[in-house]
């Protein structure tokens, strides 16, 4: 005959097993959610473009950033940090990366947006390499989960070019 204690223990064990299964399934579903963010960035205007007195090129531009990052959000997403960077090559460095704009997206409802903005951080080259320079814009995201590991990735939007002359 089963004692009360034995039955309670069996129920508890069953409950814990179910809970473990649910957690495993949730974390698997999180891993298998393959997000497909999309983004488009237009450069609406070169506000100004000049060589600073000590020789570094600096440009100010206005962008129209459109993005749909809703697929990054799951039950386990706390928030998403997003930033836009300009990436280009120079004789000295194979990759120069200059962050231009960033934002924190607190919820899925805010993850589909467009924003028209001048660069929030200065677009300065470590030299005077920017005239006629081809560059890419990249949209990076860092997904901060409620539990588990952070993950990051980016979209590359190629094919931009700076003017040949300062203005
Ligand atoms: C900026 O992008 C949005 C969404 O794609 C579009 O509706 C809007 O017309 C664009 N603005 C300009 C000035 O191109
Ligand atoms: C810009 O993007 C193109 C196409 O994806 C890639 O081949 C090139 O290496 C990128 N340039 C830099 C500096 O990352």
From TrEMBL:
<dbReference type="GO" id="GO:0005787">
    <property type="term" value="C:signal peptidase complex"/>
</dbReference>
<keyword id="KW-1133">Transmembrane helix</keyword>
<comment type="function">
    <text>Essential component of the signal peptidase complex (SPC) which catalyzes the cleavage of N-terminal signal sequences from nascent proteins as they are translocated into the lumen of the endoplasmic reticulum. Essential for the SPC catalytic activity, possibly by stabilizing and positioning the active center of the complex close to the lumenal surface.</text>
</comment>
<dbReference type="Pfam" id="PF04573">
    <property type="entry name" value="SPC22"/>
</dbReference>
<dbReference type="GO" id="GO:0045047">
    <property type="term" value="P:protein targeting to ER"/>
</dbReference>
<keyword id="KW-0812">Transmembrane</keyword>
<dbReference type="InterPro" id="IPR007653">
    <property type="entry name" value="SPC3"/>
</dbReference>
<keyword id="KW-0256">Endoplasmic reticulum</keyword>
<dbReference type="GO" id="GO:0006465">
    <property type="term" value="P:signal peptide processing"/>
</dbReference>
<comment type="similarity">
    <text>Belongs to the SPCS3 family.</text>
</comment>
<protein>
    <recommendedName>
        <fullName>Signal peptidase complex subunit 3</fullName>
    </recommendedName>
</protein>
<keyword id="KW-0472">Membrane</keyword>
<keyword id="KW-0735">Signal-anchor</keyword>
């Amino acid at each position: 005959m089963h004692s009360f204690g034995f039955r309670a223990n069996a129920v508890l064990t069953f409950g814990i097993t179910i809970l473990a299964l649910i957690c495993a399934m949730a974390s698997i579903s999180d891993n298998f959610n393959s997000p497909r963010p999309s983004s488009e960035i237009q450069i609406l205007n070169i506000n100004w473009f000049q060589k600073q007195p000590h020789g570094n090129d600096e440009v100010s531009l206005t962008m129209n950033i459109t993005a749909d990052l809703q697929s990054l959000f799951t039950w386990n997403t706390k928030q998403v940090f997003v930033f836009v960077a300009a990436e280009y090559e120079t004789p000295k460095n194979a990759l120069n990366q200059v962050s231009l704009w960033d934002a924190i997206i607190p919820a899925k409802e805010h993850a589909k947006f467009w924003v028209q903005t001048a660069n929030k951080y200065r677009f300065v080259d470590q030299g005077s390499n920017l005239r006629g320079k081809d560059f890419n814009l990249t949209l990076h995201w860092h997904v901060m989960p409620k539990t588990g590991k952070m993950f990051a990735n980016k979209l590359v939007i190629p094919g931009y070019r700076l003017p040949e002359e300062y203005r």
